[in-house]
């Protein structure tokens, strides 16, 4: 049975310091176009979302930042929200712009052929930069719903030119210590063409913008069969991997808990991260969750997800790199694959329990949270008001 | 240039008689989990939906039936709705049960492990059978959102047994001149396992139920790369193809206008229909649209879709069957494929214009509708009230 | 750390008795359309293939049968081959018919429009039944390359009728204690339509044939995203799952080692097997490998694959069924999923090492084989002659 | 019915001048890993391949160049081959390097961890550059089979660094009037990771090399559901689209005749080409076929393919660009899509027949070829020798 002492000091230190950013919206309701189910205790405002997120950090010790979605998390006083977060032991992470829920954006936001709507969408991003200033966030995260549903509906290339111009205006508004990260997505909500559908497109725009523009890789945003760890490797090689949106999928952008659909894939992704030494806190890569807990409880769903990332990371850190390289150079396919599988097949849960206990945390964060009575308390307290969801 | 006279009398008669059933819900608003855009003039109730559907029939002469969705189309007096339909020149088609929009159905309807919820879902279907009686409909159309999001969430096999029992209870309530059609879907809204995911599963349940249970093939409900016309052929061979839900897709269940994404595929499907002589009005196969006009106008979107099915049908009827068979038996791959492509590459729009003019219709239904001023009228008249959508 | 004693007696017994059938062809060369690489020591005839297969059984104690492919494994004296196998401690398993490597079969075998070629293909199957008689095999395994590359190339439905007739003739030639298993495949080598593309089609033919016709599920023969364990469950429910062809895939029918691409999927499949009590030796389900070791060494590749199936099985047997059912019935999504993941995340390698030692085997079969010097011996001995491959 | 006069003079000129490059290997045998079927009359050497290719040009008037594959098309005297081509009315096009059919390349060519094998692969490309010199070709086309079958088999990033270095050495050997085009492929023959799997990777390498390195887009080399015309648009925007390998697919890299699987997609690709004015002879984009006629006759298969590209091009040239732009800017989804569909639904075969007749060609190249007796002649003459295929 492996224990913490099986990790070399550097690996152990990387594992101890790993942090995972939480999305505020994971604590609100979500669903499909068919139905959004409601749950007792769901937050009614950003302050309550932060309170729930802080619970995840309290039990895992590994989730000290919360990402906001504007306008879903718009408040009158962002300074107060920042102070509230700090009082809960967390801080504000990336600011996500949302330019897809206004009737004006029916035909796009930063790519819209109507110049006045495009200007409105650009302004919405400048507002987000203001929120960054007020909350101490250093990253603007841009995901666009832009695209078209039918061939011919709009001109694909003209949309790229508009996007180019829109992003340049937004990038110009960033201060020197702020960055933009641009997310790509294979499809949905657009059904024929999406304006930033793949990492190549996102990278081209980032290259055009400058060094403080990087790519966001959402693990659910690829075509069937795509080798995601290859893209991770390639973006790291280009120095342009800005952040992960972790989740998992069986079919489309299912937004299930990370590691739930294909834990081996998650391990392979972390292996590329470790291989490129990108687990270092100063690597510039943000590890973030982006999930929808449509059916399962939200807080424990996030705790479980943080644990899944930690387990995949611990396994990746256990890979015997020397033995791996030797087998690779010898052309010994089975031995090389075997080195990787040995690490993957190891049960690292005891090792992580040990790590938590050293930090003064409960060895099993999920059990500890469930025993805490927090869920019953919020169910009792959060009566009335409108539950937060994707629309509010 | 082909004309009506290029069709033999039987083919011409089949084309003239072909009808396409319209979904009432296509006239309401729809969208994605990200946003449902609203549009001026959208119906507020089932009566207005029927009025809009009747416009599609008025201009195409080929859409005389409207399918209802219960409870979306629940009215106090179904008899009145039926009379209203008839006054507009259409009648009520299939009745679709909807057991996925109540919080009770979070973990399923006909497959739910909670017996009381399962009983409620069965009762909802019995109510639909009552609606059939009141409206003169002879078909109960069952599509279930049932499924699970995570491995282990529920027992796959136990869910099948519950489904088996639920369907049997519902089937037993049908009268002799009524049938049940069971739709399958690859995924969505369930993300790990869907309880009726493929034609094999649907067929197995229909076989267990009896001869008046048939399979519904929705053209958007398959895995990437699936050869849909093969399934059409196979279900026809088994005598179990009950209905089509026509639409088109690039990625998942996009519900775009039929023929918009892959018109050649639609032609190949119709070719199998013609090949099996299933275009005959008494073949037992219902041709129906099931689409979401998220961005485009709804009434002209439906008109265009009816026209697309007619064009694919006309092309399929133009296939030189004798030449095709001769080339096939001779093993002449290029010649055989060439016979099919000749029909597909033919521009049948003039032929269909001719057909419409013979029926006393405008040759171009879309242009005629757009010139009619109907859209402006409903935009002016339908002020106030709640626009119909998937939730109402 | 789990040990054998953590399994209840019945589970332990099932694990001890589990056997996996090996494909003779896995020991010959294979490759892609681009290149078949050769390897020193590759068998030159079926006798040498059996010798290699027997090594896999010697080290794992779990692979006592070898499946033959006719004509690849045709020998003058099948009785001698049978005796040879027994002398090596193994016996002959299923007989696979091969009707795709003769120029005559360019347009199909059992579905060929040319009656004389179809008759030849039927005779090839009757020959296989003779081989079954001579070798003591009780199962005829049918996988067909039949299909067409272009729309229109042949008539899809006529091909089904021919298939129906061909299979009936073959089935009629089986004795009462013999069965036929029919494999389906999504695509390849046919690129437009395959005549047995999915489990529904295979099942329909099996139902038409009779109770001794069952479906073969090859884990690499599905569309992207297909939930394979659902099909396993459904075929078990129908009493028609005859055999597995285990392998793994990232893209198409890659034929990689089972468990190499998605070990979690393999576990879920075994979970459905255990759930349906189909691990029992008398369940009628044959577990077989069907792999291509294009780059890795063949004998250790097979050993590794047997171990992978055993590990997935052990994990499936460790699932706490009572806790799982309780969580499922309570609608506790996270707890139910957690029960499954607990078993999956367990490192069962020590448990299996223990099991092997109790049987008098080396705890690590792969290491033991590699230390045995067998590979060096066959490389030295097998000089000259033509290496076995897919064509010989 | 449209005629040539419906095209404006510029469009007509572009259509008249369009040329499609033929692959020499399409005239040899090809197949799948299961079987390569042989055909009477198949060429035995590059001279005979050129003779067959010249027939395609003779009947279509649009295929004046033939691309070679080295070593498949290696001859002692390339000067003689060049003269032979010219005597047949064609010339040598791109030179394709082949570094995947030697046992040395089992673990890769330009990415191989063994430096001596990597050097050999680089030399093979320098040899191709010599062939370019001797034949007057100005383009080196690089497609690599490099990749790995199992996670861990080799280091993904180290392989990129080796690729980078290898390509740089090759690029340095090109003269100023020569270019390199780099093809990407989703998967096959590698099953876990391919070293140039997508356009993003190819583009990154081209950017690193310099302005005379461009991307090759093979229409069969993408993940399911990929919007290929979007990539066309994006590469044109980046000024890096070097060539097309046209073919079509239903599943993987099926290499069927272009336009056979999804003619609407081919039209959409050509629409982006026309939109970007990249049909101009000096646009730098080479239109090339890359197909495998496994079942159909090869020469007429190529003729048909050239015709399919011409038909898609003619339709794209018929798009009413002004009306399209107006509808797009007005947000009229149905009208914009309708403009595109009007062009697509037009039967352009008469127009192309007219074009051919003006050039002094038969209006139906396929019929004319079939009537020529060429096939019977080569079947009679080409007796003995080894038929050309992928291995020779």
The mean pLDDT of chain A is 97
Beta-strand percentage of chain A?
5-15%
The CATH H-level homologous superfamily of chain A = Divalent-metal-dependent TIM barrel enzymes
Largest interface by Cβ-Cβ < 8 Å: A-D, 58 and 58 residues
CATH architecture of chain A: Alpha-Beta Barrel
Which of globular, elongated, flat, extended, rod-shaped describes the shape of chain A?
globular
Q: Oligomeric form of this entry? A: homotetramer
Biggest sheet: strand arrangement of chain A: 1-2-3-4-6-8-9-10
Characterization of this structure:
4 copies of one chain form a homotetramer. Chain A has a single domain (18-317, 372-381), classed as TIM Barrel. Chain A is built from 14 helices and 10 strands. Chain A has helices at residues 9-17, 46-60, 78-87, 115-135, 156-172, 199-209, 228-237, 263-275, 298-318, 321-329, 333-345, 349-358, 365-371, 374-381, and strands spanning 22-23, 65-70, 91-97, 139-142, 147-148, 179-183, 193-194, 213-218, 241-246, 286-289. In chain A, the strands form 2 sheets. In chain A, strands 1-2-3-4-6-8-9-10 form an 8-stranded parallel β-sheet. In chain A, strands 5-7 form a two-stranded antiparallel sheet. In chain A, helix 2 (46-60) packs across helix 13 (365-371), helix 9 packs across helix 11 (333-345) and helix 9 (298-318) packs antiparallel against helix 13. The longest helix of chain A is centred in the first third of the chain and has 21 residues, at 115-135. Chains in contact: A-B, A-C, A-D, B-C, B-D, C-D. Chains A and D meet through helix 5, strand 7, helix 6, helix 7 and helix 8 of A and helix 5, strand 7, helix 6, helix 7 and helix 8 of D. Chains A, B, C, D: It is an enzyme of class 5 (isomerase).
């Amino acid at each position: 049975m492996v224990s913490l002492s099986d990790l070399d000091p550097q690996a152990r230190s990387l594992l101890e310091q790993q942090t995972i950013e939480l999305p505020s919206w994971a604590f609100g309701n979500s669903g499909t176009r068919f139905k959004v189910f409601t749950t007792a205790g769901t937050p009614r405002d950003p302050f309550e979302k932060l309170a729930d997120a802080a619970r995840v950090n309290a039990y895992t010790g590994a989730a000290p930042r919360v990402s906001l979605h504007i306008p879903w998390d718009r408040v009158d006083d962002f300074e107060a929200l920042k102070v509230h977060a700090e009082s809960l032991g967390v801080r504000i992470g990336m600011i996500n712009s949302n330019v897809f829920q206004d009737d004006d954006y029916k035909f796009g936001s930063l790519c819209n052929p109507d110049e006045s709507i495009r200007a409105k969408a650009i302004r919405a991003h400048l507002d987000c930069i203001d929120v960054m200033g007020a909350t101490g966030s250093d990253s603007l995260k841009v995901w666009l719903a832009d695209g078209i549903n039918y061939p011919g509906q709009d001109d694909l290339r003209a949309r790229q030119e508009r996007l180019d111009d829109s992003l340049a205006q937004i990038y110009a508004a960033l201060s020197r210590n702020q960055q933009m990260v641009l997310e790509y997505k294979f499809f949905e909500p657009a059904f024929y063409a999406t304006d930033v559908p793949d990492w190549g497109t996102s990278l081209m725009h980032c290259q055009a913008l400058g060094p403080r523009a990087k790519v966001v890789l959402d693990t659910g945003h690829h075509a069937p069969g795509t080798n995601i760890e290859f893209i991770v490797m390639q973006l790291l090689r280009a120095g342009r991997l800005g952040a992960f949106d972790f989740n998992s999928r069986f079919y489309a952008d299912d937004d299930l808990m990370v590691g739930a659909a294909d834990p081996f894939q998650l391990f392979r992704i972390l292996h590329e991260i470790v291989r490129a030494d990108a687990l270092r806190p100063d690597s510039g890569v943000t590890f973030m969750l982006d999930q929808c807990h449509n059916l399962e409880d939200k807080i424990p769903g996030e705790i479980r997800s943080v644990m899944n990332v930690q387990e995949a990371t611990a396994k990746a850190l256990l890979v015997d790199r020397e033995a791996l390289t030797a087998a690779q150079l010898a052309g010994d396919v089975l031995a090389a694959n075997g080195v990787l599988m040995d690490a993957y097949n190891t049960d690292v849960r005891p090792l992580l329990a040990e790590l938590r206990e050293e930090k003064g945390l409960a060895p099993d964060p999920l059990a500890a949270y469930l025993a805490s009575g927090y869920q019953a308390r919020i169910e009792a307290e959060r009566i009335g008001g409108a539950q937060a969801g994707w629309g509010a």
